[in-house]
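Morning F.,

Quick status update on the modeling queue. The single chain you submitted on Monday has been processed. Sequence for confirmation:
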Amino acid sequence: MHSCIVPNPDTRPGVINVKLLLDQLRGNGVLEGIRIPRLGYPNRLPFIKFCQCHVVLLEIISIGYLDGGKACIRITRLV
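Structure tokens below.
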């Protein structure tokens, strides 16, 4: 799905309504998507790094025991 950003209520070229624009970006989650990495949280992790970070949840899964897809299924069932 993709959505359009409307720059102003009249959709006139070259005119930007900042409040309207920010409301749309906030509503679409764009601003939150920018805020999270700026706080220092990664938005993507290699699978091995994910496992290292969540080792407490993964006591039943040892690294190398399962392929990534099966391990992800088990991880999401634990959370």
